[in-house]
Amino acid sequence: MSLESQTLGGATQITRMVSTRLPTRHGEFKLLGYRDVSGVDHVALIREEGAAANGPAPLVRLHSECLTGDALGSYRCDCGEQLDAALQAIAAAGRGVLIYVRGHEGRGIGLMNKLRAYALQDAGKDTVDANTSLGLPVDARDYRQSAQILRDLGIGRIRLLSSNPAKQEALEAQGIEVEARVRLDVRDRPENSGYLATKRSRMSHDAPPEHHAWDTLADGRLPGGALTPADEALVQRYGPLIEAGPQLVIAQLGQSMDGFIASRTGDACFVTGELDREHLHRLRALVDAVVVGAGTVHNDDCQLTVRAVTGTNPVRVVIDPHGRIPHTTTVLTDAGTPTLWLVGAEASTPQTLSSHVAVHRFTSEQDFEPAAILGFLAKLGLGRVLVEGGGLTVSRFLRAGVLDRLFLTSAPLLVGDGVPGIRFEGTDALSGALSAPVRRFVLGEDVCTEFNFAAARPASPVTAQRPDQQDEAAGQH
Ligand SMILES: Nc1nc2c(ncn2[C@@H]2O[C@H](COP(=O)(O)OP(=O)(O)OP(=O)(O)O)[C@@H](O)[C@H]2O)c(=O)[nH]1
Ligand SMILES: [Zn+2]
């Protein structure tokens, strides 16, 4: 529909005037220009990369014009930051619309009146009383033209990027189905916190959640309520690990595209990038215990704690049948987190050890089998386990068939020769290869593939086999 008018829900009419494109720092948008019956011009920025059919409803932002916030960068309100965050959210989703609604300046009272209201707020009034003492409505905005623009775009169902329930009600009254209100991730500032507090207490705006979604997940619960797009992504990625309950065995490895976790000298620094490190720390925060082989501790002197995000450190479990980790290594000297040192009958351990280290001596080789170790940990109340490295340890747990999920992150690097990641006796035919339902997460330059072995059971059981090597080569931490 072009250069046509439409009437909907009564008086207001809009006309589509022009179509062009707008390159921005959030990529290129299609731009449509509209004029309403009172001669006010509005624009819609449209992103439509994703398939419309079965996906979630498109993200839509009705952005009320605010010269001071949008163009001048004022911190009296949060409009400028919301405008930016909305375009970013739409760009990240690949699909959505931002309608920049003109005539909404000052919640519909116009620029000069808004500035007068500011002057009254400088003298101590809040944003509501300032409008009323000017003899003006608290909020005079009309959303009919926005609903009509959405209809013109063929959009009847949306996810609304807003904290304002009045916008949702106004759109619903115009027949637009609002599937959810999605929060924009804009933090309060000292300069606008009073204004935002008034919007929440006197104008029914959504309050920000008490905790960020991650803190709730790290606490072992699923967050509820309106989430920011970034928080929604966290819940989708890590929610299933919470839902798994008290028994969960996951593993992770970061490797080069050709499957190495370190160079041939054992250099494992920064195979994968910063976002994969953050992901690894999130996994640590979601388990009771993190398991590593002695070689990884020996090579990397890893800390195995949660540092990149908030969360509780898991118990560190070192599989070390021959007692070969150095006695000065971090897991034995850093008293901030408990360490469980699993050694064999013959292994020698120091007379005195820091009180955070518990040595457990296994009497038989079978005790070091993955299933036996997991059974032992579960009895200690450590039912949620992350097997973190290195390649041999993760491979042993994998081929023992005890992993519920494996997170394998590949970095765009070709190492050529080095310390291998996953290795186990393969089969002659590809049909015998291990597979499972997967999900993929882009982590900056890297791609993380999550194998959901739990979902594949019992269709493709992995045969438990005796490990032919207990020692660990190297890992990446
Ligand atoms: N009258 C008046 N208008 C203001 C004031 N501060 C910001 N505005 C205007 O308020 C409009 C933005 O509305 P907000 O209440 O900040 O937010 P909202 O659009 O209702 O809700 P969100 O969708 O969550 O952003 C813009 O047009 C601003 O010009 C103020 O103190 N007084
Ligand atoms: Zn503003």
From TrEMBL:
Broad enzyme group: hydrolase
Cofactor(s) needed by this chain: Zn(2+)
Catalytic activities: GTP + 4 H2O = 2,5-diamino-6-hydroxy-4-(5-phosphoribosylamino)-pyrimidine + formate + 2 phosphate + 3 H(+)
GO molecular-function term, one example from the UniProt record: GTP binding
Annotated Gene3D superfamilies: Dihydrofolate Reductase, subunit A, GTP cyclohydrolase II
Pfam name, any one: RibD_C
Cofactor annotation comment: Binds 1 zinc ion per subunit.
Keywords for this protein: GTP-binding, Hydrolase, Metal-binding, Nucleotide-binding, Riboflavin biosynthesis, Zinc
Entries under NCBIfam families matching the protein: PRK00393.1, ribA
Protein name (Swiss-Prot/TrEMBL): GTP cyclohydrolase-2
Species: Paeniglutamicibacter gangotriensis Lz1y
Gene name for this UniProt entry: ribA
